[in-house]
Amino acid sequence: MGKNYVDIENDQGETLRYRKHANGRGLIAHGAKVHASAVVEAGAYVEPGAQIAAGAHVGRGAWIERDAVIGQGAQIAPHAHVGPHASVGAKAKIGVRTYVGDHAYVAIGALIGDDETISDGERIATDKRGLHLAA
Predict the structure, then answer these.
(1) For the domain bounded by 5-133, which CATH number is listed?
(2) Which of 1, 24, 57, 83 has the fewest beta carbons closer than 10 A?
(3) Which Pfam families is this protein grouped with (predicted)?
(4) Per-domain residue ranges of the chain
């Protein structure tokens, strides 16, 4: 059986160690907290300080940056990017290749489509059809 971790050098020249999540084989940095029932697919990265709650699903190639919080049952589609300090509420859905900015907030149950950008610091909520509401 091969090793269960990978060492990767970041842009600042620091070496970060990532372990492979048992449920999906995505890479989880030391210092990140991912619930055992969450799925982090292969090719996804979860950075230090990030938290992923029970039942959440992080798709292939997604990137969850430092100190981001992903709520219970939230779904992050493949190749989405959740910025540092961002929060995605429980049961929210983030679309393919969507970017959630630094310190942004996506409300509980919000539906964010594919290829969208949530600006830094923006607070967003949607109805069940994905139409934007005041957050």
Answers:
(1) 2.160.10.10
(2) 1
(3) Hexapep (PF00132)
(4) 5-133
pTM of the complete model: 0.90
| Residue-by-residue DSSP string for the chain | ---SEEEEE-TTS-EEEEEEPTTTB-EEETT-EE-TT-EEBTT-EE-TT-EE-TT-EE-TT-EE-TT-EE-TT-EE-TT-EE-TT-EE-TT-EE-TT-EE-TT-EE-TT-EE-TT-EEPTT-EEEE-TT--EE--
Q: What is the mean pLDDT of the chain?
A: 92
